[in-house]
Amino acid sequence: MRPLHEGTQGSGMSDDGNSENEDHLTEMFGDLDSLTETQQKLSIGKLVKTMESRGVGPFYVLTGMLVTFVGSIPGLPAIAGGLLILLSAQTLRGKRGLWVPRWLRDRTVSADTLRSGSHKAQAFAAKLAPFVHERLTGLVTGRGPARIFAVLTALCGLGMILVGFIPGLPIALALPLIALGIGLTGRDGVWIIAALLLLLPGILLLIFGL
Q1: Which residue from 148, 149, 157, 141 is spatially nearest to 179, judged by alpha carbons?
Q2: Per-residue pLDDT tens for 127-136?
Q3: pTM as predicted
Q4: What are the residue ranges spanned by the domains of the chain?
């Protein structure tokens, strides 16, 4: 898995830059549509393989969007949380890719529900794209930020596992994950700052909501 999306060039301020950002944020949902259109059930293993091929940033965006728009699937927040913790552990160990245990890899989810949520998430991502520009890149690149992000996403993942059954709380933890993913995908430090700010109330909800 690529540690960061490597395709963004220039300042991202032009119309071409906005179009490129939109492509980065929405192409993964097209991948998901292709994967679900001929199946009734989709394994977590196939879903992860499709997600990780896009890189860490899009992986965060897609995971957060699925929790937000497809949270009605029983156990989805817990599955997403487990994947985030596994990815964080791999990152902290300096490993690329995402290893998923077989018992989780073989679990299946409804393809129709995923596809429906994917369409909503894709439309939402397209609306966010014009606000993504390459700026404050020092907050995005390097091993230091990558390790910090790994710890933060592990906390989000743990929270999704612990409070996934409480309506609304998984979404509170998914929002900073989406912002973090957008920041990494577009090399936009402003979205990284937004992710940190959004994470604070999520942590408070996690602490005082239990």
Answers
A1: 149
A2: 888 888 899 9
A3: 0.80
A4: 15-205
